[in-house]
Specification:
Layout (H helix, E strand, L loop, with lengths): L4 E4 L1 H5 L9 H12 L5 E6 L12 H7 L7 E5 L3 H9 L4 E7 L2 H7 L4 H16 L8 E7 L12 H14 L3 E6 L6 H14 L5 E5 L6 H11 L3 E4 L19 H10 L8 H9 L1 H5 L7 H4 L12
Parallel strand pairs: 1-2, 1-8, 2-3, 3-4, 4-5, 5-6, 6-7
Length: about 300
Amino acid sequence: MPSLQINEVAPRDGLQIEAEFVPTADKIGLIDALSATGLARIEATSFVSPKAIPQLRDAAEVVTTIQRRPGVGITVLVPNVKGAERALACHVDEVNLVMSASESHGLANLRMTPTQSLEQFAAIVETVRAQPQGREVFINASLSTTFGCPFEGEVPEARVLDLVERQLALGVQGVSLCDTTGMANPAQVRRLCEAVLARFPETPFTLHFHNTRGMGLANALAAWQAGITRFDASLGGLGGCPYAPGATGNVCSEDLVHMFEAMGVSTGVDLDALLKVSASLPGLIGHDTPGQVAKAGKADRRYPMPAR
């Protein structure tokens, strides 16, 4: 039984900001390859308006065509009730709702304050709960700028705890704490993770880090030391938020898996298989990726002695 769960977000969070549209067949092939590596969940796409994110305009076709492997949850981002209805029609396993802990970032990213986002959450939860019996769809909420806002600076811990409590009261089942612009540091991460786990011990929390300032892996380690066992990560380190100035890619999936496996912490992921999929990314998106292990190889890689 793996000690950790890794949620792969590259098909959504990574591809949404690529300059060029990745063909639908290539997206499907990427997700199918990822689903064979032992990942717990894959965030396949986002059911947003094609005008807002044209790179993901093929959401329904992608989700209804990919292979559905037992044990691999397919989650999608839904911004509103209409998006939730479209996602539910595609028989997803999980919907991911998004709001910001910061009023400024919420207005910039979603055109909504946190209070308005929570009102929309209530309508989405009601829509999901109206599904026929036997069709249980997990409801997760991602809380952006948990560790800091690029417009406002520090986000008080008390505000984060209050928003999590209000999300859960609406019927949200899991919560992702997101370092949207890579502002977090390991000490801060450990404090907040310990606080949320102490206050909401029955809630599955996922940590979502960006590597904007090179602290993604250190922050993941701090979260794990605090008791977190679920992490978002993106193949090759792809990703970033178009409404968060300076934000770069997510913590890299293969780098994260490599770190934990080297420590003896089981992720359930076949790292060699994951690296093979990662090696295909530059050809898919037309540029290099920031991941490190794909370039340097695993730590147990050995080289021949130089010739004398």
